Amino acid sequence: MIWSLQVLRFVAALMVVYVHAAQTAVTATGSNGLLPHDLQVAGFAGVDIFFVISGVIIARTAPCLTWRSFAWRRFRRIVPLYLLISIPYAIVAYKTGFGWRDAVATLLLWPATDQMTAPALPAAWTLCFEMLFYAAATMVLVDRRLLWGLLGIFGLAMMFRSAGPVLQFLGNPLIIEFGFGIALAYAPKWRPAVWCLPIGAAA
After folding, report:
1. What's the Rg (C-alpha) of the chain?
2. Smallest Cα–Cα separation from 18: which of 47, 48, 40, 50?
3. In angstroms, rounded to a whole number, what is the distance separating the alpha carbons of residues 141 and 110?
4. What is the residue extent of each domain of the chain?
5. d(C-alpha 5, C-alpha 68), whole Å
6. What's the whole-model pTM score?
7. Residues 137/70, Cβ–Cβ less than 8 Å
8. Which of 41, 48, 55, 106 is the most exposed place for a label (fewest CB within 10 A)?
9. CA of 14: how far to CAs of 4, 50, 123, 152, 185, in Å?
10. Do 128 and 119 touch, CB atoms closer than 8 A?
């Protein structure tokens, strides 16, 4: 089951990659490519699918690990390759204006300072939410009682998102999609289609 989810997550990632590639092609050539524009935009749904699947996978695998093992596996799997790709982007961006906010967003995957700043690698904005989710999962593995505090922080951040960039990031509704994934991971095995209805309605 986990492998099938990994394959689906890969497909979702490809959907997003295609959208970015199509947008680049439009900018460079003015052509929408082979697929209609509306269908290309639908590829952004790959992000939502990706986040939900991440929630399922982490909910099923993390409880079997210590917090140190979980954090190290996530770090080892994502950060080295991400930095290998992002650092050249950052070097190029430095020549056109690359401030401390850009450095924080790019190197720490934390986009919220006194303003929202995207990483130098544009597509890496999704990793900001992934790493935030992994950090939260690590804290829960340290002490499950922290879950309630994290939920409280998320709820307050959603309520007061207009107060500043940090709350906009911590209270972004996209984070709920990880929660959908966790709910699916613990949902009863029977009649799975019933459990998909709330996710479909939300999407």
Report:
1. 18
2. 40
3. 22
4. 2-202
5. 24
6. 0.82
7. yes
8. 41
9. 15, 10, 12, 34, 23
10. yes
